[in-house]
Structures are given as C-alpha cells and as structure tokens.
Amino acid sequence: MACRNTVSIVSSMQIQKLHSIEKQSPPPERISTYKPNIWKYDHLLSLTSQYSEKKYKVEAVKLKEEVSCKFTESVSPVGQLELIDRIDKLGLSGSFEVETKEALENTILDSMKSNSSSKKEEDLYATALCFRLLREHGYHASQDMLKDFFDGKGKLPSDINTLVELLEGSHLSMDGENLLNDIRLFSTKNLKNLSTSSDINRLTNNPLAWRVRWYDVRRHIISAQNCKNTNPMLLQLAKLNFNIIQATHQNDLKDVIRWWRNLCIVEDLDFTRDRIVESFFFAAGIASEAQHGSMRKWLTKVIQLILIIDDVYDIYGSLTEVQQFTRAIEKWDPKEVQKLPTCIQICFRALHDTMEEISIEIQRQNDGPPTLPHLKQEWINFCKALLVEATWYHKGHIPTLEEYLDNGWTSS
Known about the structure:
It contains 18 helices and no strands. By secondary structure, the chain is mostly helical. The protein folds into 2 domains: 54-236, Terpene synthase, N-terminal domain (Glycosyltransferase, Alpha/alpha barrel); 246-411, Farnesyl Diphosphate Synthase, CATH 1.10.600.10. It is globular and about 70 Å long.
C-alpha cells in the first residue's frame, strides 16, 4: 500500500507539472547572433580583368582545337585516360565533352575489355582509373571491374598510383557495393602506411568526390606547372580558361551585388544574414562554366532569399505572423502581408518580385512553358515546412526523429 500511495503522489505531482508547463508563456523571441558581413562591396564592384576582352576568348578557341587533336593521336588507352583525367582536373571538361565521350565509349572501353585478364600493375592502374572516370562521367561501371585487385586474402597492390585511383573510385560507390567499401578501407590503410605526404593526407581525408571541382582547379594548375610531363599547350589553355571564367564570375558577382543593394534589405532587416558573396560561391561551385552566368545569378538570389525567409520564421516572426506570411506565399498576393510588420512586407516583396523577374528571364532565354508556377510551388512547400518547425518551437513541441525527417527533407 505504501508503494501504491507513493506512486500515486508522484503521478499527481507530474500531472501538476505538466499543467504548469502548458500555462507557461510562449518561448522568448530568439535573437540574431550572426556575424557581420566581411566583404567590402565597393571593392568587389571595382574589380576588373583584362580577360573579359574578346581576344582572349578567340585565343582559347584556337587552343581548344589544337588540344582536341590529342584525342585522335595514336596514344595508349592509359594515355587517353590520363588525358581525360587531366582535362577534368584542370577545369576543361566542358570544352571537350564530345571528345571525352567518344574516347570513353570506344577506345578505352574496348582496350580495358581486352586487358581485363591481365594482372600486371600498369593494367590494374588503368582499370582503376577507367572505373573512376566512367562513374564520374555518368556511365555504368560494375564494381566487378576491380575484383582482380584482391589476391584472395584481401590484399591490394602496393603501387601508390593504383591505390590512389582505387581509393578515389571507391568513394563513388552505391548502396550494397561491399567490394568498393572493402577497397576503400584497404586502400586507405595501405596509403597511410606507404606515405605520410600532405597530398596523401588530403586524399584520404577529402577525396575528389567530396570536393567542389572548380575550387580545386587552381591547385591542379600549379601542380601541372611543376610536372615535367605536362603538355605545355594544355597547361596554357587551362590557365587562359581559368582567367576567362574568373573574369566572368567577377562580372556575375557584381550583378548580384547590385541587385542585393537595390533591395535595401540590409538596412531594413537587421536580424537576417548578409551572405550574398557566400551564396555566389555556392552557385559558382554548382555551375562554374562561363556560359552558365544566368544560372549562377538566379541560384545566388534564391539562396540569399532562402536565408532571409528562414530567418523570418526562425528569428523575427511570431507564430501568427509567419502563419499569415505562409498564406501570402500560397496566394502569391502582396495584399496578404499589408497588416504584417514592415520587415516581413519587405521580405515578401523581395521574394515576389525576384521570382517574377527570374521567371521572365527564363522564359525569354528558353522560349519554353512558364516557370513561375513551378517556382511558386517550391516556395510554398519550403515555407510550409518552415511553418511546421516554427509551430513546434512556439508550442514547445519536441518532434520525434520521424516527424523531423519527414518535414526536414523539404526545409533543409
């Protein structure tokens, strides 16, 4: 009986505590603690480059034609593989898509099939390199290509170049490819035992598949410059191409900075993030080629708007305000935010007008079906997901993992 009475008293106290929690006031307003912007926009707007001039683009076209001949020269399959790899790493893959495709589908694949039964070290290296390049370029390459790397006891060849290609290729594995998982473990261990150089440490900690290719190009150019076997014409093209693209990026960045300044959001919204340059870095990493300037600018604007809207839901708006803001997004109607604080009205106007402008630009460039309905729907989905998270916070609800993931795949 004593035990029952004790349990009864504890349960009663717990119930009272739960009731008191329910009567508590809503969570306090969150405060922005973001670090200030580190970029000087006036300085960025003053940047100039001689490589914006047309003569350099003409020179690049001539060099591309000369380098393109290298694919048709009588070189070994390994030589063609290494040329493709070098072109990719030097940021030139977009200039040689046709040549690369033909080489991978014809000469290289045929040569690898004829040599598949050999276990000579150079053949293993070529197979590992071929496997990685095929997967990087979107071709189906079976993990069975790499079976010969094991001697039956789980041992790998000791050649560093072969191990490097094995490790890089193993990071392109898919679910259920246990052989590639084993190769990754073995090659990582063996590489660390064979060498302690900074290049090997970088490789094992940050393989190619995890890196943004464009931001690796300059390092590869410097490396190629110090290599005696580098084709001077290819190196010259890589340097010229890098400078031309960098000049294009500078001009694109200036455009989005002017757009950002014209919005006047920084002056009116002190709670949100001023991250236009960082957003551009993200966009340039996704679409680095010179011809994708519109994509870079559109994506930069979208990322910055995502940050702003996220801060409206997470930091500035009350639950009632973000509910009304979500309704305005669903209706895509500026009148729906007229009774909301000026800050939120500014956010809505920036989002509304920018998406309208992007839609018109896409329509003009592609002459396809209207894109605005699709853009609007994505923002509706995003804001609804943010509203769910805001509701959890304001009501003190801690979501289960399943609840969080079900909503988070959209908001994140």
